[in-house]
Design goal:
mainly beta; 10-stranded mixed beta sheet; 1 helix; 40% strand
């Protein structure tokens, strides 16, 4: 390849790489790589019955707002998990993007009860019942840090998936 064609090509590649990097810096930089007890403290939380159209299965969705941002893996996924009454749950997902401190996870239901990790029946889930939300994160020394908060399970309202009730 000639130098005349190589130079514009290298400038174009540099511009394409620089745009995403500038975007992450503008969005608040990289997320923390470790967690502390104060970072994962749950400030607000709520749980509601939900269902997704393709399967029409009922489940419970939980939305939490933490004091700080939770740590992320090298590929951008959140290094934390959530459960409701220590049954079900799973990985956390961001609500409204990486810049917020709001996260969500779901717990499956079968016959009106939470589905446990071992596929057994867990605690009964009914509107108005109170349950404990648990968030767990491993710090850089592989020590587990947990936080919990009690929530009341309710029916779905407008804006619940987006975190509107807690200002996400």
């Amino acid at each position: 390849m000639k130098l005349k064609t190589l130079l514009p090509l290298s400038v174009a590649v540099a511009a394409v790489v620089a745009v995403p990097l500038a975007g992450t810096a503008a969005a608040g930089g990289a997320a923390p790589t470790s967690a502390t007890k104060s970072t994962i403290k749950i400030e607000q939380a709520y749980a509601f019955f939900d269902s997704y159209k393709p399967s029409k299965k009922r489940l419970v969705a939980v939305v939490v707002k933490t004091h700080g941002r939770l740590p992320r893996r090298f590929d951008g996924l959140i290094r934390a998990g959530g459960s409701l009454d220590r049954s079900g749950g799973g990985s956390l997902a961001s609500v409204r993007g990486k810049a917020t401190h709001c996260y969500t996870f779901t717990v499956g239901l079968r016959d009106g009860r939470f589905i446990d990790h071992d596929d057994s029946r867990g605690t009964k889930a009914s509107a108005g019942s109170r349950h404990v939300v648990h968030i767990s994160v491993r710090d850089k020394n592989a020590k587990e840090i947990t936080a919990s908060k009690t929530v009341t399970l309710r029916d779905k309202r407008a804006g619940d998936r987006e975190g509107a009730p807690i200002g996400c």
